[in-house]
Design the sequence.
C-alpha cells in the first residue's frame, strides 16, 4: 500500500500528489486521486475521486506528497487532519521519507498562523475566533481562489441563502 503511494508521488516530483488509503474487507489498498488545487505545493482531492473511493471501500487515511520538502506536517496539514478526522501520511521527495500522524485535537493559533487559502485564511480566522471566543459555530464554506478574487458568481449571493 505505501509502495503504491510512493510510486504515485515519484510520478509527480514537482507537484503534490494526493490519494486515499482504503480498507475493503481484509484488503488494504492505495487509491490515487487527482489533485485539483490551483498551486503545485498544495492539494485538493477531486470530489469524484473521493466518491469513487467511498464506493470501493472504507477510507482509512489521506496521503499527499511534499515535493522538495520535509515529511513533517505543515500547520495547514495539522488543521486539515483534524477537520477530516483521519490519519494522514506525508511522503517527502526526493528523500522518500514518510511521516504519518493522526488527529490529536490540534487547533491553529489565532495569532501568528501561516496563511493557507481555504484552510488558514481570512474566513477560517473569523470562524475560529467566533468558535473559540464566543462559542458560536459558523459554517465551513467551500470557495475557490477565483471566486475569492471576484471572478464568477458573488460569494455573498452564494452563501446568503
Sequence:
Amino acid at each position: 500500500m505505501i509502495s503504491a503511494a510512493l510510486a504515485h508521488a515519484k510520478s509527480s516530483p514537482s507537484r503534490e500528489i494526493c490519494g486515499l488509503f482504503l480498507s475493503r474487507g481484509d484488503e488494504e489498498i492505495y487509491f490515487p486521486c487527482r489533485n485539483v488545487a490551483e498551486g503545485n505545493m498544495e492539494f485538493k482531492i477531486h470530489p469524484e475521486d473521493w466518491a469513487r473511493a467511498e464506493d470501493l471501500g472504507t477510507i482509512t487515511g489521506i496521503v499527499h506528497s511534499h515535493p522538495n520538502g520535509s515529511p513533517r506536517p505543515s500547520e495547514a496539514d495539522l488543521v486539515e487532519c483534524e477537520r477530516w478526522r483521519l490519519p494522514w501520511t506525508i511522503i517527502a521527495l526526493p528523500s522518500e521519507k514518510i511521516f504519518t500522524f493522526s488527529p490529536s485535537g490540534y487547533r491553529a493559533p489565532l495569532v501568528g498562523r501561516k496563511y493557507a487559502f481555504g484552510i488558514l485564511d481570512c474566513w477560517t480566522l473569523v470562524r475560529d475566533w467566533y468558535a473559540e471566543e464566543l462559542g458560536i459555530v459558523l459554517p465551513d464554506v467551500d470557495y475557490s481562489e477565483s471566486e475569492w478574487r471576484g471572478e464568477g458568481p458573488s460569494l455573498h449571493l452564494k452563501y446568503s441563502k
Notes: The chain has a mean pLDDT of 90. The helical segments are 2-10, 47-56, 75-84, 122-134, 145-148, 155-159. Strands lie at 18-24, 27-33, 58-67, 88-93, 98-101.
